[in-house]
Amino acid sequence: MELFLQQVFNGIMFGSTYAIVALGLTLVMGILNIPNFAHGHLYMLGGYLLFFFAITLGLGYWAGLVMAVIAMAVVGMIMERIVYRPLNEQPHINAFIAAVGSLLFLESFAMVVWGAQGLRVENPYPQMIDFMGVTMSVQRLLVIIGAIVLILGLHFFMKKTIAGATIEAVAQNREGAMLTGINVNRVSSMTFAISAATAAVAASLISPIFMLSPAMGAILGMKAFIIVILGGMGSIPGAIVGGYLLGLIEALGGGYISADYKDVFAFGALILILAIKPTGLFGKGEV
Amino acid sequence: MFTKPIHTKLLYIVIFVAALLLPWYVPDAYIFQVVITSVIFGIAASGMNLILGYTGQATLAHGAFFGIGAYGVAIMTEAGISFWLALPAAALISAAVGLVVGVLTLRTKGAYFAIVTLCFGVIAWIVAGNWIELTGGHNGIYGLGDPTPIPFPFFGPIEFTTQTSMYFLSLAALLVVLFALYRLVYSVFGLSLMAVRNNEPLADAVGINTFATKVISFVAGNFIAGIAGGIYAIMMASVSPSATSYLLTFNFLIFVILGGMATLPGPVFGAFAIPVLMEFLQFLQDYRHLIFGALLIAVIIYFPQGFVGGLRRLNQKIAARRKQKTSES
Amino acid sequence: MLRVENLTKRFEGLVAVHELNFNVTQGEILAIIGPNGAGKSTVFNLITGTLKPSSGRIFLEDQNITGLKPYQIASRGLSRTFQTTSLFDQLRVIDNMLIGYKYRTQLGFWNTLFHTPRWRAHQKEAFERAMETLNFLGLAQKSEQFVPALSQEEQKRLAIGIALVSKPKILLLDEPTGGLIQEETDRVTDLIRKIRDQGTTVCVIEHKMQMIMGLVDRIVVLNYGEKIAEGSPAEVKSDQTVIRAYLGEEVDA
Ligand SMILES: Nc1ncnc2c1ncn2[C@@H]1O[C@H](COP(=O)(O)OP(=O)(O)OP(=O)(O)O)[C@@H](O)[C@H]1O
Ligand SMILES: [Mg+2]
Fold first, then answer.
1. Nearest Cα residue to atom 24 of ligand 1
2. Which residues contact residue A114 at a Cβ distance below 8 angstroms, ignoring those fewer than 6 apart?
3. What local confidence, expressed as pLDDT, does residue C236 receive?
4. Alpha helices of C138-197 — where are they, by DSSP H?
5. Does B290 sit within 8 Å of A108, measured CB to CB?
6. For residues B309-318, average pLDDT
7. Residue C70's domain is classified under what CATH number?
């Protein structure tokens, strides 16, 4: 029982990361119809920026986190402006290729600047808490709480602010939104900023627990894609539920499925599901 | 209808002769190795170009099919099967896996297809690293023998022990592949591939079975990847999971895009020019993907047809201007 | 020739086509008219298999083609054009025609790879037919040009040509003169008449009444997805329901 609870706790923690990262991706995919293959790499860069601000510049964890999030919002906007916007009217395939280009660029950038070796952000809250027989470090708890706060905040933003409502309108019907005079370029830019910033939050929360490495974004980015495709492109609830679900499945299934092949099952499941339903489980159409 | 201007033909002849004589002027064994690898990657990139460039399906599993060819040859030759049998067999296995994967994934569109093929690519890579009994795990399989000599009347058997022989083996494969692609692409069949890329609903409406067309292109492209992988394994005398890695896929993608998507010489040019250039720019080695990532973005935005496509356009412009002049005078 | 029985198509919360019955007889030109959003294009999409009907059946020469895929229906001799001009715009004019003819040939993978005698024969036949059709369309001079270099009228002609090159039994044209000026419209109208005179049955969606009146044999009028009238141009013109449906629009423009 205690082992089970421990696994559930870990699953929720990983799920929190997945949910946030998938959330950012689903926004961008829903709004722009662009698969940002580099989204996982934005997450990776967010982690390194935390390291840069918090450790290298010595600002400390929380100030570093805020700076990393702001910096990543700017990176997201730059990416939208110089990589994706010029490809708006081009065949879709060109946007995928540009996305692969961004991914290679970002990974290599981190490699050149910070090296291939893993880096550690010192854990600001290493204390352990014992709760119903489950031991958890405060930082791990912080990941979970941080994710909830972020999700609630985003929900509030989407439902209660005009900017959020505009994003949702564009996500649901791009052409229609254009007709009503919404500046789609501005919405795109804003969405990318939010997407990259949320990825930075996820990375900042989790990087005191795991090592940073330039390659850490690749697999996570793919998992985010799986969640988004299964949960429905542009669907925020889909991304959240899917994120937590994947975290739990991995944590609980870890004991039964060999760890080496863990990802094979997730990716294989995606292939099979798309073979049966090419537009995804809740797919609203094609990209 | 599908003919080329005369100076282009001349250029190809010059390149062909230069390629034939290459072993006699290549500076050293190391560069020679780079060149042979380029020839092999040129084969693989040409296969990717069929799927990606001509048919417009953004496959990100090409490295996996290259790897299947490589492991196929390694495992079969280890088991005592002649390389000459193992190579086509491995390519056929690549094609067969391609058929299964293609049928499963090609009903998805655009981004979904890209991500689902990437998933398959990662699966292949994980399996290569972990199925120790078959693939040797992360160490891979090494110490493969040379291909058996081919008995040849008058000249005696052709041996495959030297770099030069490996080079000609790869070059011959490249030429055969390019010849086959030339036939496929410059034909009504090739137009049907481009029809799928350009306007799928219309292709469908004029009676083209678009799904079958995509599957054929995917299978053929992966067959070619399998050939390239098989030759790569025997040339390296070993194979490891990196031969199935998605990084390899991204490299092929770079060759195709920078060289010229949907042109026959483009991917081959890319596969040559880029690694050879990198050898001369050793100090940039660490920045390799930084540069190529940025180049990929810039090229796809400003020159989506890559180097060869750009040259072609220039050529057309010059020809048009010349025509105009003669008609004016 | 073509028969539609109780055809119905529901989109979420909207009945775009409702219990529609009509048929197109061999050798005629039939027009489908109706106000914007009446469901005309949807009818075409149902017939050609682009959309699946909610209910109802479609027969081509007494064979049930309901539920077949678009390419299967096309290869049974039913061709169509789209409302927004749809072409292979990355390719040349001649290439567009060859693609339109491909299903008629056996220019598949193996024949092409090995240049079999059959490949030779079919490739030659395809080129000849493509050039013949381009001549017919008045586009032979432009065969080597890329599509974007064509004028709007030429593009409309080419779109018809892609559908025509495979010698269909019946040709469905969705607003073939949409966006063209009077002069161009007249030329395209002549082209459609010529196509019918060569023995191809034609079904055309149009808005331009004047053009239809002089061209077609019969008219089916749709409104809100239902057939409200059917008959010769003269009959339809004086039909009270039709006039009411078009109230505010000029029937005789
Ligand atoms: N794929 C679709 N999903 C939902 N609704 C659709 C779809 N296609 C068409 N409709 C709706 O069905 C109705 C009929 O559309 P259709 O395009 O057939 O009209 P039309 O008669 O061709 O009009 P027009 O003269 O403007 O071309 C319209 O209200 C349209 O919005
Ligand atoms: Mg219409």
1. C36
2. A48, A51, A212, A214
3. 84
4. 152-164, 182-197
5. yes
6. 82
7. 3.40.50.300
Is the reported ipTM for this assembly greater than 0.90? yes
Kindly state the tokens that stand for A121: 């952000």
In a domain, C187, yes or no: yes
Q: In chain B, whose CA is at the least distance from the CA of A215?
A: B247
- Has residue B287 got a pLDDT over 60? yes
What class, spelled out in words, does domain A2-276 have in CATH?
mainly alpha
Identify the sign of the CA torsion B36, B40, B43, B45.
negative
Which chains reach chain A with 3 or more Cβ–Cβ distances below 8 angstroms? B
B217 token code pair: 């292109």
Q: Find, in chain C, the residue whose alpha carbon is nearest to that of B201.
A: C50
Domain range list for chain A: 2-276
- Number of compact structural domains in chain B: 1
Q: Distance, CA C64 to ligand 2 centroid (Å)? A: 25
- Quick check: B219 pLDDT over 90? yes
User: Tens digit of pLDDT for each residue in A18-63?
Assistant: 999 999 999 888 877 778 889 999 999 999 999 999 989 988 889 9
Nearest atom (ligand 1) to Cα of C38 = 21
In a domain, residue B133? The reply is yes
Give me the domain span that covers residue C72: 2-247
Tell whether C252 is covered by a domain. Answer: no
Residue B164, domain member (yes or no): yes
B327 in a structural domain:
no
Predicted TM-score (pTM) of this structure: 0.92
Please indicate, yes or no, if residue C253 is contained in any of the structural domains.
no
Token code pair at residue B249: 């896929």
- Residue B235: its H or E element: helix B210-236
pLDDT < 70: residue spans in chain C = 247-253
